[in-house]
Design goal:
5-stranded antiparallel sheet; about 650 residues; single chain; alpha/beta
Length: about 650
Amino acid sequence: MQLDSKIPEGPLAEKWDKCRFSNKLVNPANKRKYEVIIVGTGLAGASAAASLGELGYNVKSFCIQDTPRRAHSIAAQGGINAAKNYQGDGDSIYRLFYDTVKGGDFRAREANVYRLAQVANNIIDQCVAQGVPFAREYGGTLANRSFGGAQVSRTFYARGQTGQQLLLGAYSAMMRQVALGKVKMYTRREMMDLVVVDGVAKGIICRNIVTGEIEKYSAHAVVLATGGYGNVYFLSTNAMACNVTAAWRSYKRGAGFANPCFVQIHPTCIPVHGEFQSKLTLMSESLRNDGRVWVPKTPGDTRKAADIPEDERDYYLERKYPSFGNLVPRDVASRNAKEACDEGKGVGETKLGVYLDFADAIKRDGLDVIMRKYGNLFHMYQKITDSDPTKEPMMIYPAIHYTMGGVWVDYELMTTVPGLYATGECNFSDHGANRLGASALMQGLADGYFVLPYTIGNYLATVPPVPTNTDDPAFEAAVNEVKDQINKLMKNTASGKGGHTVDHYHRELGKIMWDYCGMARNKAGLEYALTKIPEIRADFYENVIIPGSGQELNQSLERAGRVADFLEFGELMVQDALLREESCGGHFREESQTEENEAKRDDENFCHVSVWEYKGPGTAPVMHKEPLSFEHVIPSQRSYK
């Protein structure tokens, strides 16, 4: 496997311009002859489909839901970053770049991050033109608020519904192209395999979720925009349909998988409340603008929050990190919440929670002002917990959220398989070991609106513009492999054997992943996980029960396929975590910490991207390294004090 990042030469601020100028172009007449498959219709997929359709390409867009409006991008609440510097508080493209590299604990490519900061301003202009209802100041200018890891206000927002509003903007632009005939929408399809012909991506295999039919689709290029894999932990803030299948099947066809152990643990989630809970609910990080995080100073204190006087409260983030206070990055906030609970200071029935208190903000600004900012979030919290955040503090605890690892891509977003691209959360490229808040929406839209439309032409210009078809034997071979996997999953239904549901095995895997490859990791725990995951996987294939058949709408079968992939992918995550003998971002390796119990990086040995290559069933994968160099932001021990 060759890892050529294709980063242009020259000054950092000129690399993207140089890339665009040096790329080959496809003339408008030829664009009409090319077909591009885009898998996923969230922010990255919808914006890419809209942009490529507008350019004249013929796009086949695949949606796992019944409508793109249900993509998990709608769940993003707090905002999207851009360095507009409307407040005049010292922001700039370079500062956004600096904060993002530092926030990612120096494990991202400088060139990719700088490009992200460059195009972010264009995203805001694009979305305003689409009618996205960003919050505005009294005078009509766009409003901004702060997020973790920054000392400026650069986050644009639409109350607590930013993801939904941005998705509606991208969706409307995409549906315009559908109406014009440039984008063809395939809903209720799940990508089951990538078709590679002579080493080049030529199409995909899908399962029609409604009918169960296995379908073949061809194109000149394939784009993955399928989101993250946080559901490997079972309990996460992700929608239940989020999965790793498209990325994992592409990995098995030759696409390198980068930094799989890098996941984000979000500090402001509603705590777990029961054994049979199926997902967790995120409360926007924007709440940390006005909410104060605290726990009782005395371990084991069972008094209600209102009964604990001010001098017996530990506002631990403000105490430990006076410069950033409650707006430290997500990994720092998460690790400190876990530490407080480990010391016996946790609150709530499970003692796995800390308070997020708005009493001071309401007293300072008035309830009406706070409700205008966070009203829908407060209502959501009250509906779930039956507790009113305006009268008593929220309870929060860290949970699995975003994933920074993903399919390896070069500067042009192409994977190690020619003709296969990955955009948004399903690639690894921009966030290092920890994503700053409000940067997920930024990356998804940057890739779809302003990066891929330029870079994909550089590849298509080398591909003959002849019609594609599914006649190659590789398509039929892939179909047969998909059918064989389905039959393997369904064998207990036919035989009448089996003992456990799909969720049973998913929950078992999730517990292993959270306990041994979650916020805190150590060598012994990771080695133990590597013995347990194969046992769970073997039991899964031997005893899983899947009612129904494969020739119909069968949600149990859908979940079984995804869990089967998680059971393989989880093992790769643990292998990656075991080899990364350093703490970085939210990945606290207990053997690597400072005297103050902060994460301690090892730049001498681990300043690289870990890229895994599939070597076939029963054969250990091979890890390759892409070295990271830092010429503009020199790696240092992160400090938010």
